[in-house]
Queue: 4 jobs
Job 1
Amino acid sequence: MKRASMMAVVIAVVALSSPAWAQTITLKLHHFVPPVAPPHVTFLAPWAAKVEKESGGKLKIQIFPSMQLGGTPPQLVDQIKDGVVDIGWTVTGYTAGRFPRTEVIEMPFLHTNALQTTLALQDYYEKQLRDEYKDYHVLLLHVHGGALIHGSKPILKLEDYRGLKIRTPNRGGSVFLRAVGATAVGAPVPEVPQMLSKGVVDGALLPYEIARPLKVHELVKYHSEFAGPQPRIGTTVFLFAMNKQKYESLPPDLKKVIDANSGRRIAEMAGRNWDEIEKPGKDAAQKAGNHFPVMPAAEVDRVRAAVKPEIDKFLKEVSSNAGFDARALYTEVQALIQKYAK
């Protein structure tokens, strides 16, 4: 081989192996909330920036909020699984019955706060949920700060729920609303403002953090909570996941970067984040002059008593339909949450 040809080969090899010339892998991250929403600003965008930095620029993550790549929020689980997108963040309850073991943790009166429940969810995932998410590379399962009813009237006793139409994100919310005499209307969160403004619903089950960017505090006047250690009705599980084949296609060094920003390594941060971003949402409602009725403990006990038969009924139905002991999982989840509440 001539000297000039040999030099050309050497230069080409060095160029291809040099980090400066290494190919950047771009991953598309799709989600359903607007870019001004706290989940985007305080979690998803910082996560993407951290991954890019720790990869030395070998990974680039393009975030597409507000379903910019098309489809609806319930379709995100299939977009991730089928590789339409590389990474997605969505609510598992938007596809009711698809993740039945996950739905157990969304039952009323289990949730304490985002940190404790998210940490409990990590244990629960490792013990009981891996098969439920076998088609995904799970980056994190987490919850929000807890749902309360943002509505057109104060709710201070059991009877105040009767006849109301309330938006819910999942079947856990439906169990609660059915038990107290309200009508559950399932819908993804982007639909909430229009539903409230047009009177389709009288209120919505939401945490404060997402109520603010949706301007729910401008559409309702009351934000009803409970007295006691569990002021919220329940919570919602979020799936932050990567297409399994896309993850497997990454070189080992980039898999390590993803792994370092997944699961238990980010669960505590995520839980604390979702607890912290509740405050700005509540502050916005306070500045709007809204009201925050707190149901007295004795009435909360009445509500709990009314809801228990519906929880039992739901667990029995899930056990029959999905082929596992939902009651046993419910008991396990209770113990896991209490473990982190100590």
Note: The CA atoms of residues 115 and 268 lie 6 Å apart.
Job 2
Amino acid sequence: MEPDAMARDKGKAGEAWEYAVQVTEERPGSLLLALKGRLSLEHSQALNQELQQVWTRGRVDQVLVNLKWVEYLDSAGALILLNLSNQARERGVVFKLAEVPPRVQEILDLMDPEALTRPTLRPAPQAPGLWAQMTQGVMNVARDLVELLIFVGDLVFALGRAALHPRRVRWEEVLVTMKRAGLDGVPILGLMSLLLGMVIAFMSALQLKQLGATIYVASLVGIAMVKELGPILTAILVAGRSGSAFAAEIGTMKVNEEVDALLVMGFDPMGFLAVPKVLAAAVVVPVLTVYATFAGILGGLFIGVTLLDLTAYTFVNEVRGVMKLFDISTSLIKAVVFGVVVAGIGCQRGFTVTGGAEGVGLKTTSAVVASLFLIIIIDAAFAIVLHYIR
């Protein structure tokens, strides 16, 4: 077989060939593969597909590969030949290389066939079973709880120190955080509360109208907004806007080693970063709760006046009748607790960030989820305790 004949066997029309493959059947079951040109990574996919067609030619007992006219061979080409040899061995076919040039033999000698088939020292990870996943989940929750308790201890200590030495508190940062967490969230909170009050009034009126008791729509809206929906809606909004921002801010500082720089300069990161945010949230959330409560009652008033034939005086007087100082005070206390929890969780998640930008994103999401979970748990605890102490 001449090289020119192989060159005509494989190539692009009008272009110089890169590699050539010619298969000759010397006798039944015995194949001769003549390779020529460049067996490189650039052509590895096409070359491998063409060599795989050898096993579609029916019964094969012996494969002889002639490498006399191979001009260039890299590790990818050598791996293709080694893979073809392994396939022949699995099929019980005799595989041989013939007329191997010295430069090609040097590349082939670098390949270790046993190393390719030898199992790795570190086994491939396997998907954990159900019991392993449950155990890991319990361990993660326990570890998270321990970290949270440690953070709570450090935060309480930092707040106590701030109470003893108020001049050390970064009050400028407190005011800035109050603006970001409070004033900037007023428009969206007002709109949400207004629409929520309208929805509660409208849906309750559909049922109470059948009993001729539409006057109690005002009582229902007032009680719902003061005791439950006002604090919860405000806490959820602050958790989504400010809690996530706290986690992202501190997490980014942790990734950029700015928290470590504070330690080197002699600052306490807890007092420097977390205390201003917690104090700002403790002040802002109750104020926003009062605002959200009034907005929700105003939405109910709008539905009562426009759709239920109630006068504004009647609606407001009915709301005042069901309002009690105990309900208002406990609502504000609940709002303070929500504010401290949301800010604390955001800061705690920020301090535990590891890795890069992905870690910041994961902890930011975790801060929001954990805050919402604790808000519901704390609200349920308040409901049970207030039920028995009234």
Note: Confidence is low (pLDDT under 50) at residues 1-17.
Job 3
Amino acid sequence: MKQDLSYVIFTPHTIAKSRTGGVMSRLLSRTNLELVGAQIFAPDNETCRTYAQSLRIRAPSNQLMLLADYIENVVAPGNGRPHRTMLLLFRGENPCEQLLNACGHIYPQNVQVDALLGETIRDTYADMIFSKDNPEEIYYFEPAVLTPRRQHEADEDLQLFAKFLEGKENIVRNIEYPDPSVIEESLVIIKPDNWENSSGRPGSVMDMFSRTGLRIVATKIFRFSLNQALDFYSSVDVKLKEKLAPVFGQKAREILEKEFKVSLDVNTEKALIDSFGIKYATEQFNDIVEYMSGRRPGNCPKGLEDEPGEVKCMIILYEGINAIQKIRDVLGPTDPLEAPRGTIRREFGSNVMINTAHASDSIENALREKETVKINENPLMSIIKEHYGS
């Protein structure tokens, strides 16, 4: 069947309340769609007016009028500041129907709290509170997410968003800190093992990071090319050779002595370190590169070294005071077996390579990593334009 595109927008309230992980878990586990794009953006007044007006034209019902007013009054810039939203782009069969079922409907009538089931995203995270004095008057409204009902609506909206996003940087910095010198940025990668099956695991990982209280200022779906993975993990290559080569060179010496009943001197051991030990460490490094890009050094078809790889990650940029250490504390040590209970790697990691997520370990490395993954660029707009041939 035809593969269409649709979207879900996380409202400013959902992002500010760090509900992004919980919402994402529902979307990923309750649909069979592929998440192909993600972007933090802050729509301007014109985009919000156009978006809201399209809702009013489609069906002037109480439900859509509520959403249109919300977009103009809450999503649009306010108090001189644009507001962060998150746009998730999904591809698959009947994406609008699947996403609407996961998000849930908005009921303009007064539904008693005890009648809600918490089954959909809006059941759990949205609010519609009516006045005690007038049961017909809505006192507070927060929809949690925005998603279209029909495919032609999704097509129209996505082209509107693509138009706005063209030329925009991927990072949204919409507040000024009293002391910017204490603010850090930490680059997080939710690694490929989280995306192998349709599950809520990426959202659960994201939810655990939210306990840091840091702000998400950028995100994107990313596929490492072979050369990007080699560059990103270049320091790991050096560390593996320093750490593993002597250990496995010595182990090789012990095995040879036992097998052939000979005594080997330190010079032979050094030769084994420089040959077998280095080779072993290199193979371990190649495993990491293949895991992150889907392509192995030496086996990549010529001309594809700089093309996006076979597996995907999600990159998130967090911002705040002491961001590097806060993220590392929640992530846990490289080896999941050594990670404390309650950390991400202890909960979801398998071994030192397949350990769920990466996080910058210093300000200097965060700068280098952001450059390698081109954090200021996002392919989401290009995916939309390519899909619609524009």
Note: DSSP finds 15 helices and ten strands in the chain.
Job 4
Amino acid sequence: MEQHVPGTRKDKKVFVWALSTCMWCKKAKKFLEDNGVEFSYVFVDTLDEEEREKALKDVEKYNSSVSFPTILVENRCIVGFDEKKLKEALGL
């Protein structure tokens, strides 16, 4: 189920596909929260089978290796927690 995190920075649409047990996913979410970025996310591993299949197909469109986190900032895909790329994509 998709979750929404409100923030003061709303100028870019941000979506995160993550795993609930992934350290890098947690770091990416914390980075976005700490910087006041509004974003939505889904923990793929907590979805039911049908939703999980759909989420994995969505991830694969942007990240052929289907690894996590996969972060979409507008139409730019950032694979993994890469603070430098995130700052650049978000204009921080």
Note: The domain at 3-82 is CATH 3.40.30.10 (Glutaredoxin).
